[in-house]
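Lab notebook, design round three. We kept the backbone fixed and only want residue identities now. Task for the bench partner: fill in a sequence for the structure below.
Input structure tokens:
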């Protein structure tokens, strides 16, 4: 955490930690299925002669079965490897945004990788301009909006990111309400690090922003609370994470 004399934002935790752990778990899962596959092939090769004594029909059934089994194991390994690569891209995006937020002025407070009940909140930015819950996305392509639906290259995303962003915002709102802090309400933000964002308005109340535009967005926000209150909220969020892991 930055010292009190720092000219940069005060930061708690490292960005992308949760996603890096997820990446490691997925690579280990992919390796596990590969090991199982090769062990199965090894024992099959050792048993070929024994299987052959059971007759041609049985041998063919066993052979076809092992082919399908090997394919299934290979597909599972590929799926986990693809998901690990997705996690890596997500972690790189979160780390990049973490560097960006770390360069903010000293009146900003930033919490990375905040653990909630259902998921990790990538970044929380607290300042006199309010509270932002920031969900980072590494998707490429053109991000647009049709009605109340967020789209990439004209098609829907794999899940409802707007709903996810509001869920994170509500979690922080409720957590602060326990501490008798009811205002300002956390503003959900979806920040795309690699996409061409062509959305110029909130989508169902959520800000949709590119990495390049994010500093400009922060500057344009009006003041909503004092610096002392912002620091108090930061300390509450820090304390909640410490208690969670005790």
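Proposed sequence:
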């Amino acid at each position: 955490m930055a010292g009190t004399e720092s000219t940069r934002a005060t930061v708690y935790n490292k960005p992308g930690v949760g996603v890096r752990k997820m990446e490691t778990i997925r690579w280990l899962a992919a390796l596990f299925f590969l090991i199982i596959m090769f062990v199965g092939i090894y024992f099959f090769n050792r048993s070929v002669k024994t299987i052959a004594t059971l007759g041609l029909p049985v041998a063919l059934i066993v052979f076809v079965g092992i082919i399908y089994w090997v394919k299934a194991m290979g597909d599972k390994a590929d799926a986990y490897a693809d998901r690990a690569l997705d996690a890596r891209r997500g972690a790189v995006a979160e780390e990049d945004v973490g560097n960006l937020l770390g360069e903010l002025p000293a009146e900003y407070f930033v919490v990375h990788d905040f653990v909630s009940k259902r998921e990790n909140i990538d970044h929380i930015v607290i300042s006199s301009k309010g509270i932002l819950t920031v969900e980072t996305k590494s998707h490429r392509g053109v991000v647009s909006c049709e009605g109340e639906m967020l789209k990439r290259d004209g098609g829907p995303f794999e899940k409802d990111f707007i709903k996810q962003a509001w869920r994170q915002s509500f979690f922080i709102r409720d957590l602060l309400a326990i501490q008798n802090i009811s205002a300002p309400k956390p503003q959900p933000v979806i920040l795309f690090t690699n996409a061409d964002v062509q959305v110029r308005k909130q989508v169902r109340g959520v800000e949709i922003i590119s990495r390049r535009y994010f500093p400009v967005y922060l500057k344009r926000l009006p003041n909503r609370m004092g610096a002392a209150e912002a620091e108090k909220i930061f300390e509450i969020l820090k304390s909640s994470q410490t208690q969670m892991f005790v």
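Keep this in mind before ordering anything: The beta strands are 10-12, 109-115, 120-127, 130-137, 142-146, 149-152, 155-156, 187-192, 196-197, 207-210.
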